[in-house]
Model the fold of this input.
Amino acid sequence: MTGALGADIYDCDPIADFDAIHEAFVRYSAITLRGTKLTPDQHLTLAERFGDINVNRFFTPLPTHPAIALVVKEAHQTQAIGEGWHTDHSYDTEPALGSLLLAREVPNVGGDTVFVSMAAAWEALDSELKSHLLTLHAWHETAHVFGRRATKDDTRFRNAEVANQRTRHPVAIRHPLSGRTCLYVNPVFTTAIDGLPKAESDALLASLYTHCTDPTLHCRVRWQPGDLTLWDNRATWHKAINDYNGQRREMHRITVTGCALDAASH
Ligand SMILES: [Fe+2]
Done:
């Protein structure tokens, strides 16, 4: 899609063409299969080719398919799920490999999803800063996002009482599939750089986040019903663009289990 990441794929059979899809997933980090006619069962079958399903504890599932999370914004709601830049499940000790988001109902215009290449973000940093970042780890937490105070009466979320994850990951990871170095902190779930005074940690994270908002690192998916985007959680950030108040949007998300993340070495 852009010089940084992303690919559109047309006229494929997601199951029969799986090897090519997996190769594109590793290479482009966010791939959109356009115009699929996948049923929920087929959506699950494709996800299971990537790995075990990781059922999100905080999202309400599809009533008929407990492994599929409903990501909905009703016409009367003003807040979308995932409006801030983030990486799904970075708070887990073995963060998710990726997610498969399938559009069921989309607004006339708007409701796009923007992705950031965290490999390209890393490569664009200067070498002195990279050397420093390679020595650091950061904390990722959930309470401030999915805890009771954060979710209040929003029925799209559940299990606020188990929003107690606090996990440490390297700030620069070696991607488990591509081997590329990826910056692995995000504004929603990362709370601090381990071992740094708060002011220094906050300033360093803020400067990295500003760096990652450069549009040369991005791609943007415009959805039609049936489109399925698979993104690599270890290699991307994403955010939902909330610009369609008054219209309904319904997406189905399946998340695939990943692995513990090793620090990059260069
Ligand atoms: Fe997300």
Remarks:
- The longest strand covers residues 65-73.
